[in-house]
Design goal:
It is a single chain. The protein is about 40% helix and about 10% strand. It has about 100 residues and is mainly α. Strands 1-2 form a two-stranded antiparallel ribbon. Strand 1 and strand 2 form a beta hairpin. It is flat and about 60 Å long. The model has no long low-confidence stretch (mean pLDDT about 85).
């Protein structure tokens, strides 16, 4: 995306109301903690874990998913520190199923 676009995920709040007046706008503060902001995700993660332990599901995350996330996070940190884009080079054996590569 670079300078052309971005994704944004807003933090959860107790409600989505915006109070506006001649002095400006105000919203409720975000939930205090990460688990409280993403409670639904934690419930879904625990449900999946129980299903895997009970043998009802196959674990949806592989070691390739975990290593790919680490590789991406390392590149993001390097880019933030240097102020320069970082190219990721992927070997075909390290790309998880479902990931796609975009070449420029």
């Amino acid at each position: 995306f670079g300078m052309k676009a971005m994704y944004e995920a807003n933090n959860g709040r107790p409600n989505n109301a915006v109070r506006s007046s001649e002095k400006g706008s105000a919203v409720d503060p975000i939930f205090h903690s990460f688990p409280s902001r993403y409670q639904e995700s934690y419930y879904a993660e625990m449900d999946c874990f129980v299903d895997v332990v009970n043998g009802d599901k196959v674990l949806p995350i592989t070691y390739l998913n975990s290593s790919a996330v680490s590789k991406i996070a390392d590149a993001a940190e390097k880019s933030a520190r240097s102020g320069e884009p970082v190219n990721l080079i992927w070997d075909t054996n390290e790309k998880p199923d479902g990931y796609f590569l975009i070449y420029h």
